[in-house]
Amino acid sequence: MSSIDLHSHSTASDGALSPTELVDRALQRGITHLALTDHDCVSGIEEAEQAADGTALTIIPGAEFSTTWENNQIHVVGLFIDYKNDLLAEHLKKVRIKREERAVAIGAKLSKLGIPDAYNKACAEAGDNAVITRGNYARLIFSEGKASSVDDAFNAFLKKGRMAYVNTVWFDIAEVVSVIKNSGGVAVLAHPRRYDLTNTKLRRLIGYFKESGGEALEVASCQQRPSDRDYLAKLSTEYGLMASQGSDLHIAATWRDLGLHLDLPLEVKPVWMAREAAKYNFPAV
User: Fold this and answer.
1) Strand, coil or helix: what is 136?
2) Is 115 helix (H, G, I), strand (E, B) or coil?
3) What's the rounded Cα separation, in Å, for the pair 126 and 122?
4) Are 78 and 178 in contact (CB under 8 A)?
5) What is the pLDDT of residue 255?
6) Are 247 and 8 contacting, i.e. CB atoms less than 8 angstroms apart?
7) Between β-strands 216-220 and 186-189, what pairing exists: parallel, antiparallel or unpaired?
8) How far are the Cα atoms of 43, 106, 234 from residue 63, in angstroms, in the given order?
9) What is the bridge-based pairing of β-strands 72-79 and 33-36?
10) Beta-sheet strands, E only, within 117-265
11) How many CA atoms lie within 13 A of 57 on its CB side?
12) Averaged pLDDT, groups of 10, the chain, 285 residues long
């Protein structure tokens, strides 16, 4: 159990908890530093900061950005960002248009697969002004009785190559890293082992990420094999990248929760040693 969790989601995108509820959960679990990293969205950060004000919890402003690399959707987390940055706001507007187009297309496919009015139902599930993601649709599919779990719904309907998958060309990693750095943040390659890449291709991805100005790998996460954590720690050292850790919490479960199993190997340099993190009073390493 760690007191630092640098990857989480709220109802501003596809998380199950509101920013205030997420803060409450973090306090219950003894978290001292929590990054709110909603998908291509920063609208929940101010509420989270207000909810954490006067408590033992520090909110780290962040977001999880969608990119495309060699026809693979790759996520890049931006930490320590100025979430009111003008260039960031401009980028997120462009992403929202792409996400809206994809959400409508997914909804149309699901309607043909036996879930009528899927898009409007997903919007209702997400709430006002939320970014509609595949996570919202996965919960809808499960609630409609079309899958045995949310994970099963995602894998059966929404994963690449499945019936309701919609291919979307996102932004290049280099462009997203530039946006993150322009907003004062640090770019982190999120959950590198979840992309179904061979070791050779993963190394190529990390190399391109580093060349593009990326500064850290997400090394520790929930539901992770020890061998994967060790391998990612080795890669972070080999490529001269800092190491991050995060639960990627969307909904709490026995196998995934804030701070759960998030201990970085000793040989890596934690991302909170970056100069951009200095004002957030992380514990000394």
Assistant:
1) helix
2) coil
3) 6
4) no
5) 82
6) yes
7) parallel
8) 10, 23, 26
9) unpaired
10) 186-189, 216-220, 242-245
11) 28
12) 94 93 98 98 98 98 98 97 98 95 96 95 82 89 93 93 94 99 98 95 98 99 94 98 97 89 95 97 86
Length of the chain: 285
Contacts of 58 (CB under 8 A, 6+ apart): 32, 33, 34, 52, 280, 281
Please give the structure tokens belonging to residue 11: 């109802």
Pairing of strands 186-189, 72-79: antiparallel
Farthest CA pair distance, the chain: 55
Per-domain boundaries in the chain: 4-85+171-280, 93-158
Q: How far is CA 13 from the centre of its chain?
A: 10
Cβ proximity of 25 and 258 under 8 Å: yes
Query: In this structure, are residues 78 and 188 in contact, taking their beta carbons and an 8 Å threshold?
Result: yes
**Tokens 């509101």 belong to which residue?**
18
Q: Which residue has the tokens 């930490």?
A: 79
Q: Distance between CA atoms of 195 and 212, rounded to whole angstroms? A: 19
Report whether CATH 3.50.50.60 matches the domain 4-85+171-280: no
Q: Which CATH architecture has domain 93-158?
A: Orthogonal Bundle (1.10)
